[in-house]
Design goal:
Shape: elongated
Distance between the termini: 13 Å
Number of helices: 7
Strand content: under 5%
Number of domains: 1
Order of helices and strands: HHHHHHH
Number of strands: 0
Radius of gyration: 18 Å
Helix content: over 70%
Structural class: mainly alpha
Largest sheet: none
Length: 217
């Protein structure tokens, strides 16, 4: 059985994680105020985006780059899924659907957050509503869709043997947390599933992307 050629584009999985984390970390380091949590007072939301427009835009830039990288990484995951044997078409479809929605929802969240930094005269209630939509798009919606992509990656990597089994299993575990993140809408404490699924998935995607990208021809 021949060894599949390296997929340099798979390294976009590394970029997706690095850009997102860099944007968030940079914004946290530069901002004078903590990022408003979901459900924060409208005045607090407006104040953060008005007085910390620069740091907020840095986070937006990180999200935008991450969304683009995810779109490219989705193609590599779909390619891997296509080599997974029986049921490969369904797995490919899941990867494309999950990755496409993950990229689109993250880009939407970035656009909404960027809009929050552009109008200091926006009413507090409108700012809070906009921030809520950004959270929904970039939080539960993005994380659940990202979970489908990471789950497809883990399952395809396990079936093909092209990823180490521990990494594939970690991808499936991360996907389970991500797919459960919409439980936030039913029970707020479930919100911890959003960062748990997102960041673990970015780690898995980064490692998998690096491996798939450097595989010898």
């Amino acid at each position: 059985m021949s060894v599949p050629a390296a997929d340099p584009g798979a390294r976009s999985g590394v970029l997706a994680g690095v850009s997102f984390v860099a944007g968030v970390a940079g914004a946290m380091a530069l901002a004078d105020l903590p990022y408003p949590r979901p459900g924060a007072d409208p005045a607090q939301v407006k104040r953060y985006f008005t007085e910390n427009a620069g740091p907020a835009r840095l986070s937006v830039a990180g999200q935008a780059v991450s969304a683009l990288a995810l779109a490219r990484f989705t193609a590599s995951v779909a390619r891997l899924a296509g080599r997974s044997g029986r049921g490969s078409r369904a797995l490919q479809a899941a990867a494309v659907a999950g990755g496409g929605l993950a990229a689109a929802s993250l880009a939407t969240a970035a656009g909404l957050a960027a809009a929050l930094t552009t109008d200091p005269d926006r009413p507090e209630a409108d700012a809070a509503a906009l921030a809520r939509r950004a959270f929904v798009a970039g939080g539960p919606v993005h994380t659940a869709a990202f979970g489908v992509l990471v789950g497809a990656l883990g399952l395809a990597g396990m079936r093909t043997g092209e990823l180490p089994r521990p990494l594939a299993v970690a991808g499936l575990a991360s996907a389970a947390a991500s797919l459960a993140s919409p439980l936030y809408f039913l029970a707020e404490p479930a919100g911890w599933l959003i960062p748990a699924g997102r960041f673990s998935g970015l780690v898995v995607g980064g490692i998998a992307g690096a491996r798939l990208g450097r595989r010898p021809r």
